[in-house]
Amino acid sequence: METNIEIEKLGAYAKTLQRTADHLLDNLERQMLQDAEDMAGRQRSNCPEDTGLLRESIAAFCERDGDRVTAGSRTNMQYAAYVEFGTGPVGDEKGTPLDSELGIVRKHEPWTAYIPGYGFRRLKGRLPALFMYNGMQEMQPVIAEHYGTAIQEAIK
User: Fold this and answer.
1) Beta strands 68-74 and 111-115: pairing type?
2) How far is CA 60 from the centre of its chain?
3) Which of 40, 59, 134, 140 is the most exposed place for a label (fewest CB within 10 A)?
4) CB 64 within 8 A of CB 25
């Protein structure tokens, strides 16, 4: 006894599946860049403004490497983490939801620093601003909805 199964035109199915996968990645990449730009905008809005340099430095990015797409926002300002997570006893008093996860440790004692135009001052730090974290948290439900829609569009 013998049972045979034949499938014809399998190459056409494979091409269709590949086009669907490529279309899905294109849709996701487009949506991820748009969401990253929206998130960066929220983060800029939440960012405390002193000189405006930190706020202006927040930018979206989207990178594709084969079938991997990575998107988000970033800043190249070295002091951004101090503004985000706070400093000194003032920042330590309030803390952030990420302190234990990231192992954030702040100075516990006030310190003296020279501030041009003001002279020497005794500093206790600053409160966490969480402008990057809060912008990301605000976008989570939006991103989940957008990605679901992008996937549905690609497989139609």
Assistant:
1) unpaired
2) 8
3) 140
4) yes
One DSSP character per residue, 40-58 reads: HHHHHHHS--SSSHHHHH-
Contact at 8 Å (CB) between 55 and 40? no
Q: What angle do CA 60, 149, 30 make, to 5 degrees?
A: 30
pTM: 0.79
Closest CA to 110 of 121, 119, 118: 121
The DSSP result for 82-107, as a single string, is HHHH-BHHHHHHH--TTHHHHT----
Q: Does the pLDDT value for residue 57 go beyond 80?
A: yes
Positive or negative torsion for Cα 106, 112, 114, 119: positive
Region 101-111 average pLDDT: 89
Whole-angstrom Cα distance, residue 150 to residue 153?
5
Non-local (6+) Cβ contacts of 23 within 8 A are 154
Q: How many residues does the chain have?
A: 156
